[in-house]
Design brief:
globular; homodimer; Nucleotidyltransferase, domain 5; five-stranded mixed beta sheet; 14 helices; alpha+beta; about 40% helix; Arc Repressor Mutant, subunit A; 18 strands; about 450 residues
Chain lengths: ~450, ~450
């Protein structure tokens, strides 16, 4: 971080506001003295910062914490989760999920749109559906501070342009722009018209696995670790990396496509145009084929075929055991390469690899022993957040600008709304929607 | 960066000192107004910071710059390169180089120690040789602010512990500690006794390719790029990565072992214990073997065998051309995987790949076209710094603490020397050594 000219005191104050808000957002309620310890700021500075965050509507103080403290009890501080929220959107192959999420990662309301299996959906149509659901979910008392979108595709970070999303049949879709345009248009709601977001609210789009690692890092199995590899095994291998505490994005936001490491140049053809990419050797399709479930991916299949093979492997079925060993071996081969490249302190396995962690673990560890150069300090753990990790990561992405500069963002947002107020009629309270998780 | 408690103004001042000194160190002399532009600090702040850096002995001001400026001419500021220096050490397979380097990257004196080819040298013996050479190189007027050591091996960043350096026959060598202990012992010099470094001078050790990328990023082909892959092709593939402007170190400093990506699981046995690692498929030995120069690595071979094959390929010799194509193809395969993982904006090719860039380039680009997922924004360029890049990187590593906090480091160093002065007799001027590049 560089302290900018002319406003050095101001920059320090804004930076410290960010540090304190981020602590409360990630760690949950803390006493003022815990905040002082965690941030290395003194108690009087903390008191002033908490008061400022309070007047911005971001935190509230409550009764003092008496748990085993000596001396003066220290007031508890917590984020206010209800009013300033973000919109988190996950665009998966078969469904889209939209949620409103408050500070602290609290999901206020969530709704799922099922997509017809295998049918390509047009981006504009999908984005309109997202808008309609979002308009229902957001309460009039809530202000959307940001929009985060997770998508199975290769995304340019700068503007959310989706270079390619093969499983959706999308190429060169300006998704960030489409979402922003759609959500900014005022539409009819009960008692008036209303846009879902204001004109300056950022819309950020990223790859779903990149957001999976963000979520696991913020609230899951990688909390407190600064160098993390995250692999999510499905048909493809989704990957995300945290380097020195930050999400690896690369020059354009395309980084983290771990599934396309070339591990076997004479291997199977991959959807990317290459051959023997990691995901063709260690992905779900190969696992099922090796286990004799070649046809198991048809949607009419009643049970989860992966769960079926995993259960068979656990029961000692020889073909299922061999399939798990072979996929585990390929998983280990690619992972050894990445351990050599990144020297992570933790590897988080999600998707199929997380759900059936104990079935794959031995084979992976065996390969790591011979192929990883570094001393065996790296820890393999299953993902903690399950299938919602990308949605949670999308919310974290959307909160990022607010967390980085609470004062700057709220001041800008207030003046933007003042300017836009005359052009809109504010709605009366919207009806409550189904799918809400929390009132 | 987190601004620490209690001393916020002080933290900002120290941070800004760092920003200004780093600019001058990397960009060379700048006028005060250029400094203001580059740092976003205003002219009066720059004036005060330059005065402070001047009083610390780090920079000097000279005549105003009249080049096409309007209004008041702006004084030129430059680093003082002569007095505060670092010791840069490169431990390669056949030789060790020791140099004194000033701010701005100026090499003041340099000396090379040849090692017997193929003979394992004991760490303690080698470190004593380094000490003797260093004692000769450092002038009594110079103060060593840091020591940076580049080594062909897997190094723990924290304390410079060399986990393994196969080409030196070393394993589990506490190199950082050995160097620090040896350089801190006062030894006889003309007119008295003197230690090469003071008791608190940091000794930092890193892998030579990691320092190669640091050097190319600071002063070479990757200057100004924040996401860089560096590959140096020799017998192995040395690798280094810059992510978001910072060197990728990983959890322990072992990151960047790009040569051991598994690209061909049925390929040749690799020195690491694996099989078909990238460097076994795209390294120097394979290149020479494919070109029919299996025996060319004997030391008595008069000419550089790689140069010989490269010249043959350029002259159209079919076997040499095929060898270059095959190695280029494997280089491209691994590189495509890494481009998918890192999304770099620049790939810098050093060693054999840099020297014979035009012989390999076409094959590499061809593979990248089919295997890299991202749009073709990545640029391949040959390294700019040549064989001295690791030494230059070692100097940058050694300067890092001073550049990060000039005031803090110099204050600590002065008080340490005041404390130690009574225990030492300062030497009279040492005789000038051979090998000096600059007086």
């Amino acid at each position: 971080m560089r302290i900018e000219q002319g406003s050095t005191h101001e920059a320090v104050r804004r930076h410290n506001l960010s540090v304190v808000l981020r602590q409360l957002h990630l760690a949950g309620p803390l006493s003022r003295s815990e905040l002082a310890m965690r941030t290395d700021l003194n108690r009087s500075t903390i008191k002033a910062l908490v008061a400022q965050l309070g007047s911005l509507g971001l935190v509230r103080e409550s009764d003092a914490d008496h748990r085993g403290t000596r001396g003066r009890p220290s007031p508890m501080v917590a984020v206010r989760s209800g009013r300033l929220v973000v919109l988190a959107v996950e665009i998966a192959v078969d469904f889209v999920t939209v949620a409103t999420v408050g500070l602290g990662g609290r999901i206020h309301a969530e709704q799922r749109i099922d997509l017809a299996h295998g049918a390509a959906v047009r981006p504009a149509v999908l984005v309109r559906q997202v808008r309609d659901v979002a308009a229902e979910l957001v309460r009039p008392s809530q202000v959307i501070m940001g929009v985060g979108v997770a998508i199975v595709g290769l995304v340019r970070g700068e503007d959310g342009f989706v270079h390619i999303a093969p499983n959706l049949g999308w190429a060169d879709v300006p998704l960030g722009q489409l979402v922003a345009d759609e959500l900014r248009v005022p539409t009819a709601v009960a008692g008036g018209s209303r846009a879902v977001i204001g004109p300056d609210v950022p819309v950020l789009v990223a790859n779903e696995a990149d957001l999976g690692v963000l979520a696991e890092h913020a609230r899951g199995a990688a909390q407190g670790f600064d160098n993390v590899l995250y692999l999510s095994g499905e048909v493809g291998i989704g990957g995300g990396v945290v380097v020195g505490g930050r999400r690896l994005t690369g020059a354009n936001g395309y980084a983290g496509e771990l599934g396309h490491l070339p591990v076997n140049p004479d291997g199977r053809a991959c959807g990317c145009g290459g051959r023997g990419c990691w995901e063709t050797e260690a992905g779900k399709r190969t696992f099922l084929r090796l286990a004799g479930h070649e046809q198991s991916e048809r949607p009419e299949q009643p049970t989860d075929p992966v769960a079926h093979v995993v259960a068979a492997a656990k029961a000692g079925d020889p073909q299922a055991v061999r399939a798990a060993e072979e996929v585990g071996r390929w998983l280990g081969i690619g992972l050894a390469g990445l351990v050599n490249v990144f020297d992570p302190d933790r590897v988080v396995l999600g998707g199929m690899y997380g759900r059936a962690f104990d079935v794959f673990e031995a084979a992976v560890v065996e390969v790591l022993k011979t192929r990883a150069l570094t001393p065996p300090t790296v820890e393999l753990v299953p993902a903690a957040l399950g299938p919602e990790s990308s949605l949670i990561g999308a919310a974290e992405l959307a909160f990022e600008p607010l967390l980085a500069d609470p004062d700057g963002v709220l001041t800008a947002s207030l003046s933007a709304r003042d300017g836009a107020a005359s052009a809109r009629v504010e709605s009366s309270p919207a009806p409550r929607t189904k799918g809400k998780r929390d009132g």
